[in-house]
Amino acid sequence: MKVNELIDNCKLEIIHLGDGDAEITEPYCCDLLSVAMGNAPAGCAWCTVMSNMNTLAVASLADAACIILCCSASVDDNMKMKAVSQDITLLRTDKAIFDMALEVYNQLHA
Known about the structure:
Blueprint lengths: L2 H8 L2 E4 L10 E3 L3 H7 L5 E4 L4 H10 L3 E4 L7 H10 L3 E3 L4 H12 L2
Parallel strand pairs: 2-3, 3-4, 4-5
Antiparallel strand pairs: 1-5
């Protein structure tokens, strides 16, 4: 499934759309950046509440397909500008992390 399909199917808010055609491999849940840096699989839809600049750096290193900020996590202007400059897909939802990851999983296996 592509990022664009996930956005449409799950009604996700787009903060910045990088590569909408990126293929999502699996959901990934983690709020500890050092753990995500070593364990987030390439192509994942990373579900987290960590809305800071370091989250973007880790997503880039892990080659995540997108970041989904859950629980309506706030995003400051610096994070938005960095997502744009690094062309990282940054999305948001009011759903809890587990619920969003389960929704990604179900979409992948529908």
